[in-house]
């Protein structure tokens, strides 16, 4: 049986509970801005949206799935003893701060251009986080790739909303 897990530790029950805790924490932090600001405002409803704007239900579903992946990735890095772990955790915290800042900038401040600056910085920070995670645990880095794809899409969406309504 040990030959199946060469070089990898199988998680025990306590470790799995910790992983669930990381997933819950990332989801709570990620969802927190929605308590302050949301797209359910007359200002946002009145904005012209690009033709590729997804159905409203897509956003909470996609973000929840992405935050689950981020929580697992964070847990993998946190439990590692590899060099670069602290840098990777710091990179994750930095990108998460920008992720959390975007919603109030866009919806509460009603400032798509400010939000665009934040999401462009977020995109760069996500790339940096993926690179930092890759040095610690390649699986963790791979789990962030869908997040980068979504942030890329969200950046284009933010740009188009700003352009259409400037």
TrEMBL record:
CDD domains: TSPO_MBR
Localization, UniProt: Membrane
Gene3D superfamilies in UniProt: TspO/MBR protein
Primary localization class, coarse: membrane
Membrane-spanning parts: 16-37, 57-78, 87-107, 113-134, 141-162
Gene Ontology biological-process annotations: tetrapyrrole metabolic process
Protein keywords: Membrane, Transmembrane, Transmembrane helix
Topology of this chain in the membrane: Multi-pass membrane protein
The name this protein goes by in its record: Tryptophan-rich sensory protein
Biological source species: Natrinema pellirubrum (strain DSM 15624 / CIP 106293 / JCM 10476 / NCIMB 786 / 157)
Origin organism lineage: Archaea, Methanobacteriati, Methanobacteriota, Stenosarchaea group, Halobacteria
């Amino acid at each position: 049986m040990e030959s199946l897990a060469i070089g990898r530790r199988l998680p025990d029950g306590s470790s799995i509970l910790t992983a669930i805790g990381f997933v819950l924490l990332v989801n709570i932090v990620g969802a927190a801005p929605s308590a302050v600001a949301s797209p359910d405002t007359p200002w946002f409803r009145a904005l012209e949206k690009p033709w590729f704007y997804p159905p409203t239900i897509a956003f909470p579903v996609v973000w929840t799935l992405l935050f689950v992946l981020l929580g697992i990735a964070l847990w993998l890095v946190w439990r590692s003893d590899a060099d670069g772990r602290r840098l990777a955790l710091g990179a994750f915290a930095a990108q998460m701060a920008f992720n959390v800042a975007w919603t109030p900038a866009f919806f509460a401040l009603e400032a798509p251009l400010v939000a665009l600056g934040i999401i462009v910085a977020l995109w760069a920070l996500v790339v940096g986080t993926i690179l930092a995670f890759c040095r610690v645990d390649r699986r963790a880095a791979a789990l962030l790739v869908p997040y980068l794809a979504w942030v890329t899409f969200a950046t284009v969406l933010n740009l188009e909303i700003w352009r259409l309504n400037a």
